[in-house]
Amino acid sequence: MSAQPAFAPYARQNSTSSKSRAAIFAGAKAVIIEVGNYQSNIADIALRAQVSKATIYNQFADKAEMMESLVESEVLRLVDLGLSASSRQEALYKLSTAISQDLALRKLVDTDPTDIAKLVTVTSHPTWVVAHKGIAKIFGADSAVCGVILRWLIGQIASPITQEESLNQSKRLANTLFQ
Questions:
Q1: 1 within some domain
Q2: What is the H or E stretch that residue 122 is in?
Q3: pLDDT in tens, the chain (179 residues)
Q4: How many independent structural domains does the chain possess?
Q5: Range of the domain at 19
Q6: CATH code of the domain containing 166
Q7: In a domain? residue 100
Q8: Looking at residue 5, what DSSP letter applies?
Q9: Using CA atoms, how far apart are residues 9 and 72, in angstroms rounded to an integer?
Q10: N or C: which end of the chain has fewer CB within 10 A?
């Protein structure tokens, strides 16, 4: 009979932590869709996430850190979405429609324009580094091409386009950049 490794409970805790984090982000997005970022609060997010406020504060120092982590999580989700595409044009289309149809972004544009302005300003912030590296990974492209793609997608945060426009523009962009 073999003994269980001493670190097994931590593995379970980490898994629980990941589940809690995902629930917190889903809860935060749900609250943002209803009231925006500034009107959201930890109590409402905890209720939506079905976790305690203590669970949120065990994961994040404050609401600002939670929101920054949510943005990074969304960037990583979009990178995964792009990587799941079977072609560059399909990746452009998937990313475009995901951004243009994101209800939380739509609400933020209406309620928190200052945050949107900060969000769409390309900087050396670590989240932008993740976004740029993700675009490079998805498209296997140089910095200039990645910049064009990022700016096209950023434009859709404040000015969303329809699925038909996403399809047409992604085809044209793919043909221009990758042919």
A1: no
A2: none
A3: 445 445 444 343 455 588 899 999 999 999 999 999 989 999 999 999 999 999 999 999 999 999 999 999 999 999 999 999 999 999 999 999 999 999 999 999 999 888 888 878 888 888 889 999 999 999 998 999 999 999 999 999 989 999 999 999 999 999 999 98
A4: 1
A5: 8-178
A6: 1.10.357.10
A7: yes
A8: P
A9: 28
A10: N
